[in-house]
Design a protein that fits this description.
- Helices cover 28% and strands 28% of the residues.
- The chain has ten helices and 16 strands.
């Protein structure tokens, strides 16, 4: 079996496609034969050592988080999932390993894949989808009829957040680059504004929730967009901005919190075509490293990079 891994923290040059032997699944774990995996910025942040206080210093380390596939073995205490089930999920930050022929995942980070959802599409959902869910449902407690501004509505989390907010009955305004505004309108947003020439004035005090998926709104700008009692959500704040968020009841930091229930809800939405994340490029595991490096360095393709297995 092969997987993409690295033997030290660092840049794209540290990635290698190596032979490996998979451990036996432990308590509450599954062995999954991978059918598809998608790339997320967290994958190279982990490889660079940004969270080494969690991931530690043992090498080699396996890359990849989001996956879909077929269960081949289960460990002790696995209750919901059985051998032969088609699943989607994410690996733990400490373990990684989605960019591999087989992987080990915790049952608590896995859900059953609906039969009407393809493996590649399922693999696009876990991290961006659960980040959007955590922000809108858990943090903001979004209600039908409320208004949402998604700053960066065509990014991974932004696109998921915009579609989820509309599915929950909200009026959604989004920002994106001028050349892609028609694409954003096709999502069904109430209104779209130019990300690169954003004018705060006409939008002031209009929103119950501001979801800054791009991380470029200042604390003052975010607050100025809110109605009384509203909240600003942020997924990628600078250290200075993070300090301000910690001191403000109107700002909340959002991170992905995958659970089987949330993953199942997102997968059902995707099967009904209510939550669709475009796939910009599909590659095999054997050709994935150059595409992963290009995505990291140049922010291409326009859509998710998905690794597939026949």
């Amino acid at each position: 079996m092969k997987r993409i891994q690295y033997h030290r923290y660092g840049g794209p040059a540290t990635m290698q496609l190596d032979e490996f032997e998979l451990d036996k699944p432990g308590k509450g774990q599954l062995v999954v034969r991978t059918k598809a995996a998608s790339a997320n910025p967290i994958d190279w942040k982990i490889r660079k050592g940004a969270v080494r206080f969690i991931t530690g210093r043992r090498f080699p380390r396996a890359m990849g988080s989001d996956f879909s596939g077929v269960v081949e073995a289960v460990g002790p205490s696995v209750m919901r999932i059985k051998i032969g089930d088609e699943v989607l999920g994410t690996t733990s930050m400490r373990a990684g390993g989605a960019f591999a022929d087989k992987l080990i995942a915790d049952e608590k980070l896995v859900a059953l894949k609906p039969s009407g959802l393809s493996f590649p599409q399922a693999a696009t959902l876990p991290i961006v989808g659960t980040t959007a869910w955590c922000g809108l449902v858990d943090k903001a407690q979004l209600k039908s009829g409320q208004s949402v501004f998604v700053h960066g509505c065509l990014g991974g989390v932004g696109r998921a957040a915009a579609q989820l907010a509309m599915f929950l009955g909200s009026r959604v305004v989004g920002s994106c680059r001028g050349a892609t505004m028609d694409e954003a309108r096709r999502l069904g947003l109430h209104h779209v504004v130019d990300f690169e020439q954003l004018e705060i004035g006409p939008l002031k005090h209009q929103f119950d929730v501001v979801f800054d998926t791009a991380g470029t709104l200042s604390l003052k700008e975010g607050r100025s967009l809110l109605k009384p009692g509203g909240v600003v959500l942020d997924i990628n704040p600078s250290p200075r901005k993070l300090f301000g968020i910690m001191l403000s009841s109107k700002h909340k930091m959002v991170v992905a919190k995958p659970t089987p229930g949330v993953l199942a809800r997102l997968a059902d939405m995707a099967a009904l075509e209510k939550l669709l994340l475009p796939i910009g490029k599909t590659v095999s595991l054997y050709n994935a490293i150059p595409s992963l490096a290009a995505l990291e360095l140049h922010s291409a393709p326009k859509g998710k990079l998905v690794i597939t297995w026949n």
